[in-house]
Every structure is written in structure tokens, then in C-alpha cells.
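User: I'll paste a sequence; please echo it back and then give the predicted structure.

Assistant: Echoing your sequence first, then the prediction.
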Amino acid sequence: MTPGALDGMVTPADAEALAAGVLPAGVERFVTGGAGSEITLAANRAAFDRLHLVPRVLADVSATSTTATLLADPAALPLAVAPMAYQRAVHPDGELAAARAAFTAGVPFTACTFSSTPVEDIAATGATVWFQLYWLRDRGLTKELLARAEAAGARALMLTVDTPYMGRRQADMRGAFTLPEGVSAVHFERGRDGVPRGARDGVSAIAAQTAGVVDPSLSWSDLDWLRDHTRLPLVLKGVLDPADADRAAAHGVDGIVVSNHGGRQLDGALPALDALPAVVDAVAGRSRILLDSGVRTGTDILKALALGASGVLVGRPVLWGLAAGGEAGVTRVLTLLREELENALALAGCPDPASAARLRTFRAQGGDLR
């Protein structure tokens, strides 16, 4: 991809078309697709599209700032890179390129359990690193990963709680998706990562891996085990029900990510943005609230802030930028998100992300003004 193509991007969504032009069909489907009939995948975007902001005026936005505190540390944007597996399937530099871009942008990068680059190498980029954990059947390996993440300097632990099994991602099943040659889950010894070798008709290798190594018995009592084995702040990713959010806050979790896994788990699940207000109300300030699933623009970030989130996680646009241009592509995506957010904040009468919480919103379907 030529540098000129990246310069021609005017919104992060432009990276999707560029990525589609360079990714192998199976990998492109793996990145872009959702579960089932992709009802929730589409609903995530529809939720953002039907939410309208009521801007304020005479607010003096001659000097705006995008800095925010997501968990304990300040960030240049109210944004972190979401945990995403196997980024070397998208670009040879994989997680290293994306983490370097996150460092340049001044935002956290979330390293995944199923990363194709070791957490130690990711941390060496200088980026603020959060570590995402799947609850593994092998508790010894879980303890090892926690220790490695802490030793590498990770600043938070993000436990994914919405994946006892993988959603039925039909495109991956029909295409018998398997990992490209040379791409693997490097935090696992070869042969213990649960990935079938070679394509099998009607089977996604990633779904088979999840069934083999992820423990579906994860429950609330296991949070105590985690607390005993790590000093890192604990974030739960994949919460939609306010009752679960309330219980998580009562357990003392430091953060909650309101998420439906980008439409990749239960098809028909509530759009994350629609779930956000009730979660914010239930938590009542006891934990930081982040949002992912469907975030594509700076205005989307502003909408999440207006509904009470401290910030967002961005996933697919980062992978599209990575595919389109490696580190430069991710940097371009994050730069565009910053520019869009700066513009949206100013036009909404908000000098900084914290002031977005005073904005009123109007939902086109339902007509509720908050």
C-alpha cells in the first residue's frame, strides 16, 4: 500500500476498503464478520446512527483537549486499542506495529491471550499495555500469563467474560478458516494452543481452539482467585446487563467494558451503546465504564462519552489500518479518530471529554431525550 493511499483517507472507515483490497478472503472475513446472521453486528452501527446529540453553544471552545483518564493512567484520547488476536494474520508486523502506533498516539494497547506476538515484545514498544485474559482450562498457564503480564509492565488485566464458547461465525465455518502459515498463539507451547492443523470442512479453527482451551465454567467466585494471583487492576469485558454490572462493581472491579464482542458472540444481543446508560446508572461511579462494539468515528466516541462512558475500545478500524499500511496505517486511523473527536467536541460545545457528560441525547427510535 502506497503512503499516498493512506494520505487519501479522510475517515477511519476508508481503511476498510483499503484492507479489503490486500487481505486474503478468509482473513478479511475473519476480521469483518460477526456471529449468526450478523444481526447484532449491524445493530451496533444502527445504535450509533440513531443516537443524536444536542450540542451546547457559547461554550468557548477556542482551546480543546482530548486527554482523558480511562483507568488509572491519563491517555491522549478517551480510547484504547481493543484486544484482538492473531494480528500477524493481517500484517507481518502484527501487534508490534499496532502497539507502536498506539504509543505514538498516546493511547493504551490491549495485548491478547491469543496474541501472535509475545506480551514482552509488545511492552518493549513503550506503549501503555493492558493484558486481556481468556479464562483457560489450564490454570497453571493462566498463572504464568498473569506473571508474564505483570513482569512486562502491564497496567491492567482485562478478563473477557462473554466467551464461554465462541459464537457461530458462519463465514469462518463455511470457509473452513484456519490461521495462515507462520501465525500462532505464541503464549502457548506449540501443540497446546488447541488450533487444529489444516482446514476442516465446516469448521473454524479458531472456534475449535476456543472449545479446547477456554474454560466455560468461569463464574463470579473465580474473580477472587484472580485477585489472589495478580496485583493488576481488574477490568471485566463483555457486560451488557445492569444487574451484572452492579454485581461486578460490588466485587470491586476497577473497570467494566460494555460490549457484545463486536457482534461476534450471541447474535441478537443488545447493541452495546443501547446497554450503556443502564450500566452507568447501575454502577453509579464505583467502577470506570468503557464501551466497545461498533465504534468507527470520533463522533461515535463523543456519543459514548455523552452516555456516561469514560472512553471506548476500538477494534476493527485498527486492524483495517494495520492491513492497509502496517504501523503507518494504524497511526493514520488513530490520527483521524483524534481529529474527528476534536472537531466533534468543539461543535458540541465541549472543551474536553469530561464535559461531554453534560450533553443531552435524543434517540430517533423511541424519542427519549436524556
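The longest strand covers residues 234-239. The longest helix spans residues 316-347.
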